[in-house]
Every structure is written in structure tokens, then in C-alpha cells.
Amino acid sequence: MKKRFAALVLGLALLGNLGCPAWAVEEHEKENAAALLYSMELFQGIGTDAFGNPIFALDKAPTRAQSVTMLVRLLGGEGEVLAGDWTMPFQDVPEWAAPYVAYAYEKGLTTGRSPTRFDPDSPVGAAEYLSFVLRALGYSSEKDFQWDSAWTLTDKLGLTKKEYDETTSDFTRGDMAWVSFRALEQKPKGQSKALWQVLELEDVSQVCWWQENVETCQPGRFVLSFAPVEFLGKKTAYTKFEVTKASINGVACRIEEQYSTAKAVKDHVKEREEALGSLDLGEAFALVYLKYDEAAAKAAASREETLNGVAYPVLTFCLELTGTRKDGTQVEEVVYFDYYLNGYGGRL
Question: For 83-102, what is the HEC assignment?
């Protein structure tokens, strides 16, 4: 049985309007990208939270040291970096970043601010990071693009879609994760395979990336559905998907009932069609009914979300899951996501 890390904080959903997330799509995509890159050991957090999950700090500006490290990983050079003995001309690089910076310097992928200063903590903007990624894809800033307008080529390649230009002022770690993730779908210059294939990322073509949706929220009760979302250009659903354990803010949930295949979900909805009326759960491949002690979960909340002057306790879900792929491989996941309640509703 294989395990895949998928501990995500997907943002806060406003449950007064079920299924309507309070985050913008772009931010959600950045969070998903960061978590997926983390699961493939291509992206790291700046620390861990109380649950032991990475803190991605996606709203912070990436530094030169972080960006060069990301560049080296996208080049598939991390093994060579850690095994090699590289010359480090710079005196201001932290120990954790030294092998990556030295490697990138020797390979001509980056330069310093001076012969002895790299300036590792200086923020990186859109043009500089897009240039890093284009170099990782085999393009030259001397022949193929201008580094200070790198978006011209990334837009042409379809790596970006005019999200960045000379007016971009706040390029964040979330942007870095999103651009890096999209780069995995790109074919390096002169090659016929996508970058993720060149890197030979284990099982990446079979990864099932999914989104939970709250179908019903009642006092002390949630009904969650699970459906695939696009990953590297396609959607892959689990053939069987089971929640084995659930808690909210550390308070255990009771699994009332669950439907672990797409067919079981459709049959369940059809059986209740007379009472529910027409209800379409789309591509959902699993459905679970959870009961919990709402008062205890709210009392155990460590933070709040304020909306229109009202503070709502944040409910952090922790689900332990087992998914079965089409080839029969079982994958264990542990996922975290946050919601807050400002109303109840739903038909299941």
C-alpha cells in the first residue's frame, strides 16, 4: 500500500451558501499547486503548523535562494547537487541553500549581485522567476527571450496566460508554485516529452487530484462529496474511495454512512430522488455523512474568521482516506481543510 501526502489547507468556505468557496479560483489553484509540488518533493514550506503540515506562506515574496532551489529541482538536478562538491564564491548564502546556489552558479543558471554576494534573501519578481523556469526548460535568455520580459515567451508557450507583465508588482510564493506546476506540463526545448516525464516523477501520471464539496451542513452534521479535478491536463478518479477516520478540530466524527464509488453515489441519489427532487453531484466518486459534536469542535478552535464584524470559529477537518486506482493500487491520504459556519442548508 502506497502513501501519498495530500495534507492541504484549501481555504475557508462560507457555508451559508453551500459549495461556494470564499477564495478566488486563482488562489485555490496556487494552494493545490503548492501541495502537489510538495508531494513530489519539488517544493517545501517554511516550517510546519500544529498538525505537522507544511506552512507554504504563499502570500510571501519568494527569495533568490528559494527560487534557485526551485529551479534546480525543476531541472531534476537535486540528486547531483546533494552528491556533488561545488565551489561557492558567495559569502552570504545560508547553509541549506549553499549546494543549490553553487550548482546553479557553476552551471551558468544564475549570477551573484557581486563577486562575493548572492543576496539570498532579496525578493524575486515575475520576470526573474519566469526566466529561471524558461532556463529549466532549456531556453536561453541570450537567444530565445529577454529576461526582463520573459512573459512574452511563457505566454507564447502557454506556460502563462498573460497573468504577468511589466505591471506585476507582487509576485508571491503562490505564483512561484503555480508557474512551477504549470511548467511540468511543458515540453523542454527540443524534446518530445513533458517535463514531468523527463523528471520521471513516480506515479505522477496516475495521481488522482480531487476536491471535496459540502453538499449539506446541518447542526452537528456534514455531508461531503469528492470529485476529480484536472491534474496535468486530465482528470483521474479513484475507482473506490473511503474515509477511514475523521475529526474536526481534534474532535472525532462518526461516519454515519458513505458511498465509495461513483456508481454507489449515483444509486444513492437516485433512490432518494422522490424526496430530494433532481440532484446532480457531477463527477463525484464518493459521498460521506459525518456526525460530530459541533459545540466541542467550535470550543476547540484555535482561530477565527471575521465576516461583517462577526467572528466564526474555524473548523479544521482532518480526514484519513484510502483511494483505489484503476490498476488496483491503494493510496493512503491524510487531508486537512478549513471551513467556518454562518448558516445551514443542503438537501442530503
Answer: HCCCCCCCCCCCCCCHHHHH
pTM of the model: 0.65
Q: Distance between CA atoms of 243 and 256, rounded to whole angstroms?
A: 11
Residue 172: how many CB atoms within 10 A of its CB?
18
- The C-alpha cell at 153 is 515567451
Angle formed by the axes of helices 64-74 and 98-106, to 10°? 70
The backbone torsions φ and ψ at residue 319, rounded to the nearest 5 degrees and listed phi first, read -120, 135
Looking at residue 205, the DSSP 8-state letter turns out to be G
**45: nearest Cα among 62, 29, 26, 28:** 62
Which grid coordinates belong to 287?
Answer: 459521498
- The helix (H) or strand (E) run that includes residue 198 is helix 195-198
Question: How does pLDDT run across 153-190, given as a tens digit for each residue?
Answer: 999 999 998 889 998 888 999 999 999 988 988 999 99
Cα Rg for the chain, rounded, in angstroms? 22
pLDDT tens-digit readout, 54-83: 788 889 999 999 999 988 888 877 888 888
Question: If you search the block for the grid coordinates 475557508, which residue do you land on?
Answer: 12
Residue type, 211: Q
